[in-house]
Amino acid sequence: MRTFLQLRMLKKITLVTLALLSTTTIMAAPLFAEISFSYEQKTISGVVYDTQSGETLPGVSVSIKGANTGTITDLDGSFQLQVEPGAVLVFSYVGYLTQEVPVQNQTSLTVNLETDIQSLEEVAIIGYGKVKRSNLTGSVSTVSAETLEQTNKVDAVSSIQGQVAGVTVQRTDNKPGGGGFNIRVRGANTINTGSGNGGYSPGQNPLFVVDGIFVDDISFLNPADIERMDVLKDAASAAIYGSRGTNGVVIIQTKKGKEGKMTVRYNNYVGFKEIYNLPPVFNGKSYIPFLRDVVVGNQFASNKDGNYGQYSAAAVNINDYLSDEELQNIANGVSTDWVDLITRNGFQQNHTLDISGGNENTVYAAGLGYTQDQGTVYGEDFNRYTLKGNIQSDLTDWLTFGYDNYITLAKTNEGSLEAFRSAYRLKPIGRAYDDNGDLLFLPTQKETQLSNPIFDTQNWKLENKYINFIGNISLSVKPLEGLSITTKFAPNIKYTRVGEYRGLYTKSAIGNQSNTRAEVNNFLDYSYTWDNIVDYSLDINNDNSLAATLVYSRFLQDNESYGIQVRNFTSDNFLFYNLGAGSNVNSYGSGFKRQTLESYTARINYNLMDRYILTLTGRYDGASVLSDDNKWAFFPSASFAYRVIREDFMRNQKVFSDLKLRLSYGQTGNNGIGGGLNPLGTLSLLESSYTNIGDASVSTLFVNGLANQDLTWERTSEVNVGFDFGFLNNRLTGSVDVYNRNIKDIIFFRPLPTATGFGGTFDNIGESRNRGIEVGLNAKIIDNEDFTWSTNLNFASNRNEIVNLYGNSDEIIFGAQGGTFIHRVGEPTGSLYGFKYDGIWQLDQAAEAESFGQKPGQVRVVDVNGDGQITEQGDRVVLGNPLPKWTGGFTSTMNYKNFDFSFFVYTSQGVTISSNFHNARAFSYDGEPARLWNGYDTNYWTPENPTNNWFQPGNGGPYQGAIKNMDVSFVKVGFMTLGYALPQETIQKLGIQKLRLYTTVQNPFTFSDYDGWDPENAGRNTYGASFMARTYMAGINFTF
């Protein structure tokens, strides 16, 4: 062990000695040319740090201004130099701003170098390579590690929410672990919008590439491990990924090792989250007048003679509608807050420990991470463990080896799917506990449909557990100057086990043993990507340079699944771990899918005078999911950039510090069939199923679908025009992009007549178009020694429409979760379709209401064609679209000495949905008053309160669903963070490089006219939903 340590020390000494010798050699020649003597020299020493990370910086050049003397910092960032009085030291390092420090009377210095933001931002990550941002010809946006650290999100997806112009992130639920998201880059890029389309949901999320590995989602990543995220938005940039790039590409790089001494970083935050923005329901006191109003509403609904004045809430005898038990509870003052009983303040914590370092030949990094996110509903929680490691080593001057891996073990307890909904539906006059303090399964003997939701949180288990491994092993050879040949093999393996148990005392079983149920589903997903890359760069002369990339890539993905469901358990003790304890095997099955993709890619970049840059790209893809005749397709792109700022006529102007024009055209494709995983969508196959007949399980065979051998690629073509600019020496920078994107041969599950025996078939059915504008601005408002203030702003607007539907129809109407939707020529994809809300029928409109078969107090809709009747054929209209008309984000960061403060605001405007919160049975007030559940405490219509806000309870009418079609635009404050970094003079005595303390509030404010739970996932129904939460946390960034 001692010998090993001695060798390591010897190696360090050797490296530093060589660096010093090289510097001394350079400096020595001029010193001998002119020899002078000084007898007042003194020794100055010090340490150089990175201001932001607090880490020491090895290899920093330290020179005396105006002299030819200097040195470099060692592996610990330390230096020592002989200087004369009045000397000024100049510190310079690649990627950092040069700093001059007067020595004065000091003998020791602590120097903090600022990152050269402009230098760092020069590099943009593109497919299979990187390029200087100044030479970028496409539309690529970058989210830095600093931005990700500011957000402090549990999941990586929500970290980019509102940060990139043209990227829309829509939350689908608020479950712990981040919940689900829909991500759209430049709007809807295919006609397929999700479930409800014959079961077809290929997804519109972008392609994720993590360290060169294709992944379906990035929930397995700890955001603290991400170095940067680059979003390829235009088709010319994404064309390098061919058929996988039609929805945009998000390239993610995890943190790597850096040359220098070993650095240890520990980042941590802990906090809690609380529910907010809860819609009100009635309590024990307010429920009684509500019940009376419901009774009157039922009387209005059944009225035959038009005399509505005969009904009065005061005349209603509640004894006719409540049981003796309920009346006794009222007399005893029972008022149960069911939501409060199943909710809590959820605990949240994250710990990340990293080590990194290296020398001029080898760099390495390794890290551990743990995340806990406790849900605000009992029984819900998320735990994630991560382990990462990477190394890159120059084995020789022509051979480089690299290895990366990232392992994740995660478990999500999703709890009961019914507890949330039951809590909102149960009457407040029922009891959760008996007189002895024991839980009551049924709140009242009269209530037989809803059980105490506390039992659900204890006896309904839904557990999702997975282990995920991604790796990347590479070997790169540089046989000639400017030429490199690299081969990379990247496997991705994920095993998932979903177990669910619904015990005897749950709303699902409602105390009936035969309804108890356990289910286990297992999924094994394996894929690999094998890339072979040839890069060649050539500087022809001072004005001409050429770079070329050739890629051969092969991708394979296997998906296995098997599961079983068993019912009728005599005990709840085994959950889903002992399926043999159940007596009735209800269903079981297994499946296997394989798809492959083979690709040939070429890219050429030509740079003339660092002023005119041309990039040409072509990719030839062959996909197994299509028939032999349509398997292969070619996707070309061309992009051009003109750096106007480099022109001679721009040299003496004082307005622009940067100006570049960009123009691009590109094609991408989509081969998504059946969720993008079904390799047999162009074939008809036999499937088997089992049907229980008596005590026997009988096997049956059936054809699973109608084949379409002519199915071909979706093809996207896009023109993008943009310009980048800078003012005031780049104190103000920004970009503007305008694009027109056309999608042809859209794949859709076309419904077929019932007589065919099939629900439908996959087909290329039409064309759509996206047009939009994106703006990004960055400003350094104040930039001085003690105080800095920077902001960034982004804005994006997108307009989508269907241009053509093949065949004889110009519209396709379909149902999905959240209402009825339509694909219609001239309208946006997946538009909400239905009757238009026109207020509430008033008492003085009773005669007119009667002509439409309605009553006062009911929902009124527009008679679009004016024929005096409401019909689906004549009066349904396009009501809006679930995708926003425009989005924006604003971040502000201020630093005063060692304090920092930042906040982030984002908005989504022009979003129309069918609110499933308002569609829930409880909030629609339907049903008999005697069986009435709790209700939505809002400003509803009564004869004494003739509002148009909400219909009369118990009297919504035939079109009451129209009231739930609403705008859910919002403005949210995403986070507010206050931090303090301890001074270097204090912590360096303890051997610490950086110590920062901070506190953050996430989701502190939401501004919206929507009065449901959360405007971001308003289309989600109450089944299995969760609440919006505000999170308070404190954390530490520690480096030594």
Concise description?
The chain contains 14 helices and 50 strands. It is mainly beta.
Map the helices and strands.
Elements: H1 2-33, E1 42-50, E2 61-64, E3 70-72, E4 78-83, E5 88-92, E6 99-102, E7 108-113, H2 117-120, E8 123-126, E9 129-132, E10 140-144, H3 145-151, E11 167-171, E12 181-185, E13 207-210, E14 213-215, E15 226-232, H4 235-238, E16 249-254, E17 260-275, H5 287-301, H6 324-331, H7 338-342, E18 346-358, E19 362-374, E20 380-394, E21 399-414, H8 419-425, H9 453-459, E22 460-480, E23 483-502, E24 517-539, E25 544-569, E26 582-608, E27 612-623, E28 632-642, E29 656-670, E30 686-693, E31 696-703, E32 714-727, E33 732-744, E34 747-751, E35 760-764, E36 766-783, E37 787-805, E38 811-816, E39 819-824, E40 831-834, E41 837-840, H10 846-851, E42 859-861, H11 872-875, E43 877-880, E44 886-896, E45 899-909, E46 912-914, H12 916-919, H13 921-924, E47 965-967, E48 970-981, H14 984-987, E49 994-1007, E50 1029-1039
Parallel strand pairs: 1-7, 13-16
Antiparallel strand pairs: 1-4, 2-3, 2-5, 5-6, 8-9, 10-15, 11-12, 13-14, 15-16, 17-18, 17-50, 18-19, 19-20, 20-21, 21-22, 22-23, 23-24, 24-25, 25-26, 26-27, 27-28, 28-29, 29-32, 30-31, 32-33, 33-36, 34-35, 36-37, 37-44, 38-39, 39-40, 40-43, 41-42, 44-45, 45-48, 46-47, 48-49, 49-50
